[in-house]
């Protein structure tokens, strides 16, 4: 059951991160490089519908968990009761409205700023019921929720930006324009990664030091694996920026950089999966 629960949460987080980062980078590219032919995001409707389905599945799992009965996953009365009388359920109703609007925005091709706002808001809502929010100092939930929200948004820009960057490489964009787009992503990506690491450290300290009881070995092991993946992503990003990008005009460098970007994206998606699992595991006993 926990594997399906984690999978639903992973699909939700990964899909929204991809949509948020993609929309954010598209905005930057259109503002700074208006002549760049940015590939159309035909995948975005599939991602938005996947996120909507994952949100409903996630809510049904939580409802069954609160009721202590797996049948609550499909009982309309219990689901509606959970939606009205629990914090998670009330947040779910807001989340559901945002995701319906997001799907409509993708279909009717709303401005990227609107898509970024909707996907970012739905992504940030995860932080309201996160471990970091629950473990906030003096029970001041806003501290942990704000830190976790920034962590999610910066991670989303990194993941979604890599998606669009990979599309540009696959589209065989001219090397000069490709270098410009990659540099632009790197400029904002470095800021995003620094905030991501700082908020991640703050979240981990808040959760592990603020909770009562002894830290669980499984939680620490999953957290360690996630940190190792993030470190590998940062290493790839540094190699890409300082070694490969300056030599992009040389034969074969673009293919190698494209390969690194795909690896970085793949590691990021696995890290998001581990983060989704962490959200379900008890940090302390």
Short note summarizing the structure:
The protein has helices spanning 2-32, 43-67, 76-85, 87-107, 112-124, 131-134, 141-170, 175-210, 217-244, 253-278. By secondary structure, the protein is mainly alpha-helical. 44% of the residues are buried.
Structure description:
It is a single chain. The longest helix is centred in the last third of the chain and has 36 residues, at 175-210. The chain has one domain (2-278). The chain is built from ten helices and no strands. It starts with a helix and ends in a 7-residue tail after the last helix. With 285 residues, it is mainly α.
Helical percent range? Answer: over 70%
SS summary, helix count: 10
Summing up helix and strand content along with how strands pair, one would put the structural category as mainly alpha
Number of strands: 0
Mean pLDDT: 92
Parts with pLDDT < 50 across at least 5 consecutive residues = none
């Amino acid at each position: 059951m926990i594997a399906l629960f984690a999978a639903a949460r992973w699909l939700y987080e990964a899909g929204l991160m991809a949509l948020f980062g993609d929309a954010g980078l598209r905005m930057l590219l259109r503002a700074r490089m208006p002549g760049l032919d940015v590939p159309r995001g035909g995948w975005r409707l599939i991602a938005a519908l996947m996120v909507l389905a994952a949100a409903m599945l996630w809510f049904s799992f939580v409802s069954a968990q609160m009721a202590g009965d797996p049948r609550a996953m499909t009982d309309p009365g219990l689901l509606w009761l959970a939606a009205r009388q629990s914090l998670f359920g009330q947040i779910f109703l807001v989340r559901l409205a945002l995701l319906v609007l997001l799907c409509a925005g993708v279909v009717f091709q709303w401005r990227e700023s609107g898509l970024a706002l909707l996907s970012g808001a739905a992504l940030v809502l995860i932080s309201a019921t996160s471990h970091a929010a629950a473990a906030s100092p003096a029970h001041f939930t806003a501290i942990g929720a704000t830190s976790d929200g920034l962590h999610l948004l910066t991670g989303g820009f990194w993941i979604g930006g890599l998606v669009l960057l990979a599309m540009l490489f696959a589209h065989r964009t001219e090397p000069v324009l490709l270098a410009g787009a990659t540099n632009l992503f790197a400029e904002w990506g470095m800021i995003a990664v620094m905030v991501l690491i700082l908020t991640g450290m703050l979240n981990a300290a808040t959760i592990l030091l603020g909770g009562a009881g002894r830290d669980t070995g499984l939680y620490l092991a999953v957290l360690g694996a996630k940190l190792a993946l993030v470190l590998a992503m940062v290493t790839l990003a540094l190699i890409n920026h300082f070694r490969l990008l300056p030599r992009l005009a040389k034969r074969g460098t673009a293919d190698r950089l494209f390969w690194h970007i795909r690896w970085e994206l793949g590691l990021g998606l696995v890290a998001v999966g581990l983060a989704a699992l962490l959200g379900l595991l008890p940090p302390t006993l």
